[in-house]
Amino acid sequence: MKCVRTEEALGHVLCHDMTQIIPGVTKDARFRKGHIVTEEDIPVLLSMGKQNLYIWEKTPGMLHEDEAAERLCALCCGENVYPYAPPKEGKIELCAACDGLFKIDREKLLAVNTQREMMIATRSGDVAVRRGDVLAATRVIPLIIEAEKLEKAEKAAKGGPVLSVLPFTRKRVGIVTTGSEVFTGKIQDAFGPAIRAKLDRYDVEVMGQTILNDDADAIAGAINDYLAQGADMILCSGGMSVDPDDTTPTAIQKSGAEIVSYGAPVLPGAMFLLAYRGEVPVMGLPGCVMYAKQTVFDLVLPRVMAGEKLTFADLAQYGEGGLCLNCSVCTFPNCGFGK
Q1: Which of 135, 154, 1, 5 is nearest to 70 (CA)?
Q2: Best CA proximity match to 191, nearest among 271, 288, 290
């Protein structure tokens, strides 16, 4: 710290908060620690009775918190991620530039957060976000920090970016609903409305819904019909249990799709099936999709809409956080489900 006359403080950095008191109007910090004094600030500081100020003396190899924050921000900002505003007190908030899937390079995030005197805090990854949503905030802890520490963080993260948003793409979807009880009209289909409600959150064209008996060949044929018409996603509802009459998994395999997994460590949704016919995802949706607020389908759908091709390992990772607690007030995705 160095004490200077206020009139000579132009361009210097304040070392502590400076409170302005106007009786009946305000009593708050007028200038925060780390503020860089401008020409307009000098008469205000003098009116506050500040004839002298403690300022930070810039030395080689040291960065002001806001300079460091900008470098940390640059390390974070990948595709469709932008800073909401200039740095303030070493902090920058990052937002989504479009609707899409929020992606975190978790290895790089941990590499930065295990460095000293800096941090990146994010919302959970692999969730749907909307344009303008806050994704993360970065913070440099001290007022000044060695440039070497930022260099170490940049090296640890291999240059970044740590965060990105994959934009959602438009998809044409075919729905195949199975079950003799629905096919014969004994009960009304509940799958179709539930699925459409979830698809309505995205840019989706529903090509149609085919309702069939529990006939594996007919179901496989319907899947292939939608694929021939240019479907980007096939959703098969019903027939996903281990009962002998439930033939949907067999039908998906008969259609020529390669099964990634039949089963997922998620409740509701353990009987979920994910397969691919080439690059086109074919999903077998268990009965819980009809009635549960959130299921494995809500975890997988945004990733598929962003063009990700999921693996068995991707599904296996849902085990931690894969138990929905059926809260009386659902706050998904702002909860631990699927995290």
Answers
A1: 154
A2: 290
